[in-house]
Design brief:
6-stranded mixed sheet, Aldehyde Dehydrogenase, Chain A, domain 2, 483 residues, alpha/beta, 22% strand, 7-stranded mixed sheet, 2 domains
Length: 483
């Protein structure tokens, strides 16, 4: 970029008070572009613009809002190649992932919420006896979804397109206005999304984007008295701090936080399916995904074979430049994060785990790469088995019977998505219902994009995706009348 990116506030592209900072390609360490550093005053102005726009936007016909989302989806899909190239450069995702799982999913999410759904539904009538509240009557009622108001959307670095779209699209569909605070590592893609919405005809102030490396930017976007709700994807530690602020202001929250997904593999499992599913941790976003099955619980009868096959799988994966067609594993987001992941691998060794494969830095001249690493002979009290590493590292723990497998899976602070592999479908579903997780994959790591998504325990608050996201970005109002 020859000049720096501008902020998007109140329908205007404005110069940032704090200047610009470099966005670095994690594969080449080259500069991708210059991102804007907003001041607190500019963040407050974005929140005020969203507040001013809320009234008219919330009263806009749902069909008109849907039409804007549909046009935005078309613009995003029509710019798939340049948008995917930017996403690849900012995040280090492989070309296929940037196209299909980042930009492609973002377009699909805008299309999904361009579908108007009923916002009200009848409540069964109730017969009330005469009393101090009035004469006897049959009381009718209607439950109506109303927009929350101004929503601050704080997005994650691992998928700037799909994560932002998953917040912005349902929030706008429900009649909310938004202030988006992208992750500092890769905010440029989110500004392209704002351009697509602007081209689609979104009114001034309905969508605002402010970025920055300073924690003050996020704090201002959360603390603003103009904000009614915060939607956050990121670490549990940051989520707790946001929750404290939201609690003081009685702001609504939707939080998708950390995960340490347990994959329970029983003796009768299809090992090929289990290995392929668990192996996505090594490759998909280079393990930088909260839904990854990073904690493998293997029944002893299959433990040795599973470890050997996972090691073989990881060893075959091509690590390198994500632009190359044969690359499967790209870099992690930054040098600091690479150091963090490597420190966990070393910690695992000190705790007594065995690095069956990986554990060393690949021989590449540039980029923030981590070799896919399999840690065997782990126990559930090791930090590598309890803490979210957010990299291409899998820990394997043996267990004896079903009860022990379930107990180990539930012995964690997290509860986002767990997995069960067994050819005994009845047992798989029985075990799934015993797991304290917001989602469970049975013989798959695939997702149903209409199913509710969110976590138990420290993995989050609330549910989104599909119609559940429309509920998440709305308040429910009851209207009652005498029949």
């Amino acid at each position: 970029m020859s000049e720096g990116q501008r902020l998007f506030v109140g329908g205007e592209w404005i110069e940032p008070d704090g200047g610009h900072y470099e966005v670095v390609d994690p594969a080449t360490e080259a500069t991708v572009g210059l991102a804007p550093e907003a001041s607190r005053d500019q963040v407050r102005a974005a929140c005020a613009a969203a507040r001013e726009a809320f009234g008219p936007w919330s009263r806009t016909a749902p069909e008109e809002r849907a039409a804007i989302l549909a046009r935005a989806a078309g613009t995003i899909g029509g710019h798939l190649e340049p948008y995917a190239e930017l996403a690849r450069a900012e995040t280090g995702a492989t070309t296929g992932t940037a196209r299909g799982m980042q930009v492609g999913v973002a377009a699909a999410r805008f299309r999904r919420y361009a579908r108007v759904e009923p916002a009200e539904w009848p409540v069964p009538p109730q017969i009330n006896e005469a009393g101090p509240m009035g004469r006897a009557a049959v009381m009718g009622a209607l439950a109506v979804r109303q927009p929350v108001g101004v929503v601050t959307c704080v997005t994650s670095y691992n998928n700037p397109w799909a994560n932002a779209a998953g917040k912005v699209a349902p929030a706008l569909a429900m009649g909310n206005t938004v202030v988006v605070k992208p992750a500092p590592q890769d905010p440029l893609s989110v500004y392209r999304m704002a351009e697509a919405l602007e081209a689609a005809g979104v009114p001034r102030g309905v969508v605002n984007v402010v970025s920055g490396r300073s924690v003050e930017v996020g704090e201002a976007a959360v603390e603003s008295p103009d904000v009614d709700m915060v939607s956050f994807t990121g670490s549990t530690a940051v989520g707790r701090r946001i929750a404290e602020v939201c609690g003081r202001g009685m702001k609504r929250q939707l939080m998708e936080l950390g995960g340490k997904g347990a994959a329970i593999v029983f003796d009768d499992a299809d090992l090929g399916s289990a290995v392929a599913g668990i192996g996505t941790t090594f490759s998909f976003y280079s393990g930088q995904i909260c839904t990854a099955p990073t904690r493998v619980l293997a029944q002893r009868g299959v433990y040795d074979r599973l470890v050997a096959q996972l090691a073989s799988y990881a060893g075959r994966l091509q690590v390198g430049d994500p632009r190359e067609p044969d690359t499967v594993v790209g870099p992690v987001i930054s040098a600091a994060h690479r150091d963090r992941v490597e420190s966990y691998v070393e910690l695992g060794r000190k705790e007594g785990a065995v690095a069956v494969t990986g554990g060393e830095r690949p021989l590449l001249d540039r980029g923030f790469y981590v070799t896919p690493t399999l840690l065997a002979d782990c126990t559930n009290d090791m930090r590598v088995a309890r803490e979210e590493i957010f990299g291409p590292v899998v820990s394997v723990i043996p267990f004896d019977d079903e009860d022990e497998g379930v107990a180990l899976a539930n012995d964690t602070d997290y509860g986002l998505i767990d997995y069960v592999w067994s050819k005994d479908v009845a047992r798989a579903f029985r075990v799934a219902r015993r797991l304290r997780a917001g989602g469970v994959g049975v013989n798959t790591v695939g997702r149903n994009m209409e199913a509710p998504f969110g976590g138990f325990k420290s993995s989050g608050v609330g549910r989104d995706v599909g119609s559940y996201a429309l509920h998440a970005y709305s308040e429910v109002q009851a209207i009652v009348w005498p029949g």
